Amino acid sequence: MPSGAQWDQALRDVALWIIEAGARSDDGVAPIVQAGHPALRAVATPYDGQLSASELTALLDVMHRTMRAAPGVGLAAPQLGLPVALAVLEDPGSVSPEHAEVRERERLPYRVLVNPRYTPVGDERVGFYEGCLSVVGYQAVVARARRVRLTGSDEHGTPVDEVVSGWSARIVQHETDHLNGTLYLDRAELRSLAVTDEFGARWATEPRPTSAATALGFPLD
């Protein structure tokens, strides 16, 4: 096993490779690794200044561009092959008033999470379809806590301690799970699993996947 200093240097080397990959690409993005990559199953190393301020800024910029280009509403560093506890989030919200109400999906401005953790607030859970940029072509229903307490810090070291609800709480849980080596499929109702074809598109566009639950035979919560 490498020493702490050797491991930190190895992580920095990967981060610099990601930054360089972004700089070389026409759109400034880096490759997203897919299920089967070891970084997606590792418990991420806490971020503790392994990068200089300018390197961290450059890495987060690549992550942000890559997330937007995919497109997605969140991206964790392990999805770029870097097992460090960093994630970026941003959601424009739903254009459908019905979806926005049922899913509690409001706009989530761009933010960075450093070493995030979450704990459920209350017992209420809700099930909706999710996909993942590292599991391309599939989606499944995941029952998640409707409200969570989010702790950690931002990219400037400012502590974060807040309660997040609705779709934003779902994004927080999904991305933080990535930092613990957990994919959404590990928590999914597997009978709901669908490829993103005609049927999958139909199920995912329901405000709440009640038709899918009936047709495929799975509980929603």
TrEMBL record:
Family (UniProt): Belongs to the polypeptide deformylase family.
Record gene name: def
Alphabetized UniProt keyword annotations: Hydrolase, Iron, Metal-binding, Protein biosynthesis
Keyword Cell membrane annotated: no
Residues that bind Fe cation: C132, H174, H178
Catalysis performed (reactions): N-terminal N-formyl-L-methionyl-[peptide] + H2O = N-terminal L-methionyl-[peptide] + formate
Cofactor annotation remark: Binds 1 Fe(2+) ion.
Protein name per UniProt: Peptide deformylase
Organismal lineage: Bacteria, Bacillati, Actinomycetota, Actinomycetes, Micrococcales
Active site (UniProt): E175
Gene3D superfamilies per record: Peptide deformylase
Organism annotation: Cellulomonas fengjieae
Cofactor(s) required for function per UniProt: Fe(2+)
